[in-house]
Amino acid sequence: MGRGTGSALPAVNSGLIKKILLSYLYVGIWIFLSFTVIIFNKYILDKKMYDWPYPISLTMIHMGFCSTIAFFLVRVFKLVDTISMTREVYMSSVVPIGALYALSLWLSNSAYIYLSVSFIQMLKALMPVAVYSIGVLMSKETFRSNTMVNMIGISVGVAIAAYGEAMFNGWGVMLQLGAVVFEATRLVLIQILLTSKGITLNPITTLYYVAPCCFLFLSVPWCVVEYPALSGTSSFNPDFMVFGLNSACAFALNLAVFLLVGKTSALTMNVAGVVKDWLLIAFSWSVIKDRVTPINLAGYGLAFLGVCYYNHCKLQAMRAKESQKKAVEADEEAGRLLDQTGEMDKEANGLERK
């Protein structure tokens, strides 16, 4: 018996170690690709770098590329199965989500023209505040006073960071805040419109259904805002190497999101996002030479603590829900066993009478 236990223990440990290492690998891939896409977009849009300040066009290039790849994977090579989706479900669920996604990407990419990478990451700390607030308004989240106090603390921290921003630009801040609101609304609607109807989308099917919708929505402001400026310049013919590689990174990021969430959890992605934000702030300060002030860091530090506490509460809630689910399953199993025992007793009593 001792030998059997001793031989099983290393196998368990090796399996656990492998699982942990794979989780770190998924996190590393997502952080790398997310980091790369953000810096790449900043490089293209910033007037001091590549100097191609056309955020709608850039977003449309991404959506067009992703739509094409997804179409070939689903329809031509049939590597990914489609889901049964009626026209009504598409119009009532996918179209609003696609519109919000288009607005979020448009505004967030536009913000890179006016704000530093470090300050944008600080403003993105407001995402939990926006998701929770919109969730409460749409009755998807339960209002709790302690959670709201935490949300206020995060908001105060971001406000302090904004106060200390050396290159503050009001229009850029409005664009980024608008992107946060639209993205938070999209995330809540995904839960309400798709999850409630039992529809689950992987990244390929998501791009297959949502990316063309985003492209069409973006084409309207593009015709009014950017087409007149682009048509009169040589910028209308972008470098295929630069934009092709940029679009490939954006597509790979969508796959990495699925890999990370599918193999770990959405909470792991939130925690990894905090690590990525600190790395981007450090890169922005040391390589791009964006100015980061002590007030910036103090404010973001306060917001960071609030976000960490929020993630901790989410983890505790998930564990409590899982424990409750296991308890219910155990009660149901015990009930089935009691029923089986009762039936066996009845059969035994019947045999004794005979």
TrEMBL record:
<feature type="compositionally biased region" description="Basic and acidic residues">
    <location>
        <begin position="343"/>
        <end position="354"/>
    </location>
</feature>
<feature type="domain" description="Sugar phosphate transporter">
    <location>
        <begin position="25"/>
        <end position="311"/>
    </location>
</feature>
<feature type="transmembrane region" description="Helical">
    <location>
        <begin position="52"/>
        <end position="77"/>
    </location>
</feature>
<feature type="transmembrane region" description="Helical">
    <location>
        <begin position="89"/>
        <end position="107"/>
    </location>
</feature>
<keyword id="KW-1133">Transmembrane helix</keyword>
<dbReference type="Pfam" id="PF03151">
    <property type="entry name" value="TPT"/>
</dbReference>
<feature type="transmembrane region" description="Helical">
    <location>
        <begin position="267"/>
        <end position="288"/>
    </location>
</feature>
<keyword id="KW-0812">Transmembrane</keyword>
<feature type="transmembrane region" description="Helical">
    <location>
        <begin position="206"/>
        <end position="228"/>
    </location>
</feature>
<protein>
    <recommendedName>
        <fullName>Sugar phosphate transporter domain-containing protein</fullName>
    </recommendedName>
</protein>
<dbReference type="GO" id="GO:0016020">
    <property type="term" value="C:membrane"/>
</dbReference>
<feature type="transmembrane region" description="Helical">
    <location>
        <begin position="149"/>
        <end position="168"/>
    </location>
</feature>
<feature type="transmembrane region" description="Helical">
    <location>
        <begin position="174"/>
        <end position="194"/>
    </location>
</feature>
<feature type="transmembrane region" description="Helical">
    <location>
        <begin position="294"/>
        <end position="311"/>
    </location>
</feature>
<dbReference type="InterPro" id="IPR050186">
    <property type="entry name" value="TPT_transporter"/>
</dbReference>
<feature type="transmembrane region" description="Helical">
    <location>
        <begin position="240"/>
        <end position="260"/>
    </location>
</feature>
<keyword id="KW-0472">Membrane</keyword>
<feature type="transmembrane region" description="Helical">
    <location>
        <begin position="21"/>
        <end position="40"/>
    </location>
</feature>
<feature type="transmembrane region" description="Helical">
    <location>
        <begin position="113"/>
        <end position="137"/>
    </location>
</feature>
<feature type="region of interest" description="Disordered">
    <location>
        <begin position="331"/>
        <end position="354"/>
    </location>
</feature>
<dbReference type="InterPro" id="IPR004853">
    <property type="entry name" value="Sugar_P_trans_dom"/>
</dbReference>
